[in-house]
Amino acid sequence: MSSSYDIVLRRLRRVFDQFGEGTDPVLRPSDRSDYQVNGIMAVAKSRGENPRVLAERVVAELDLGDLASVEIAGPGFLNLTLTTSFLDTQLRANLSDERLGVATTTGRTAVIDYSAPNVAKEMHVGHLRSTVIGDALARLYRFKGYKVIARNHVGDWGTPFGMLIEHLLDLGEEHAVATLSIGDLNTFYREAREKFESDEAFKERSRQRVVLLQAGDAETNRLWRVLVEQSVAYFSEVYDALGVTLTPADVVGESFYNPMLADVVRDLDAAGLLVESDGALCVFPEGFTTREGDPLPVIVQKRDEGFGYAATDLAAVRDRVSQLGGTDLLYVVGAPQAQHFAMVWAVARAAGWLPENVRIEHISFGSVLGPDRKMFKTRSGETIKLIGLVQDAVDKASLALAERSPDMDPEQRRVLATQIGRAAIKYADLSTDRQRDYVFDLERMVNFEGDTGPYLQYANARVRSIFRKLRGPWNAGDVHFVLAHDAERSLALGLLAFPEAVDAAVTSCQPHRLTGYLFDLAQRFTSFYEACPVLSAEEPLRQERLALCALTARTLTLGLSLLGIDAPEQM
Asked: pTM here?
């Protein structure tokens, strides 16, 4: 089923194609009508015509039938007002449509790279945005019909593993595993690093262990797998606490690509792209220079014949296109990596590993700040653990529930506090334009009022409470939407804008497009509920308003689920 927005937009495009000079019409919500059509001014300017005259010609050609009425406003804007019969048809269709009008995309595979912690290190606040944004995009793309392949590109290879394996042996494997199994990865890593820096014998053993690891020594590889498995188990605990869909099967670390690196070097050389520079093998992609104007290299193989991140990332691109069939490659990684990715992808394009029909995009994001608007850390200056952040939010939510509902069953409060705490963290992150920084303020985030996750959860629960007051089950039957009250019509228009919000979030990879929509819908419902009695209304008005409530609850629930946020029925 097509949304009302899409139906009207298609009709407009047919007319714009006659006059448009490549300009696409844009529909924007308007205070004076349902939509204002923008684009005519640009077309008129390119054609050297009077905008209002052109608008009149567009209206003469525009066949909206019984979809909408249209009037020309100002120097050349078009105001569209959807007909009640058309709104009725769309709303009735949504009552039986699980997707609420959202169309599906077929034949595309999205490989989404997100979270990416390091083995033997605890996940901290710096992993929050990649994990939360990436998981929301994975959910959105799955819902849109993409085959989604998640890639948790963990750091599980390299020279630090020599010292980590040696430290594991010094502690004794059983004791080391016990330490790692309780999530105390930071202590384990710090102790290994301190010994490496202060003990020459330990340092030499660590270096030799790296040689054994890279040579494929069986016992060294077994010990390495112990470290990886314990870390992945810990990551899974964090993901479960946060309500994130990543699983151990999605972990594809740097080690996975290690056997591919020699082929990367060989094939780049065969393509004539490799250049030796100061003993290293490099590619100099076009368009990348230093401030002095010198070409910037992508170092594929270092002077010591080791491989850097660029080689691994090139192997990953190659694998994701040729083996996974990725048509859309998304990298949810912080903004500082922008140039690195741009250069690596330029090399991949030049090598023919990244066809032009494959979309590849860096989904960059800003930082999480503390109340002082600096990088969020503990008072002692340490990086905040992600699992602790989640627990703080859950504890805060539990206290708020105890104040609001002191008689609530303890188990019910525990479950609900977990749902609210997760929602508070995720919504605060996702409701911010991902490229901007935001301040982590639990007091505001757990609030049941304002633009917060708990507010939307509460709004949804309030809608559902209406149906609990009915004496029996409710079904829409042969309901019709007259929308006689302005608040009814406003809510109806908000409900029908759901597909547009989902599509905007997917195409822009900006989840805040959906959070903003859901907050607006909740406010529209509040206005409707205050102005339009539901249960006390006479039939058939009562049934119409119940149907609007049912669609609101379904839209909020589905929208929140696409962000990874629970929608409890009671709060």
From this structure: 0.93
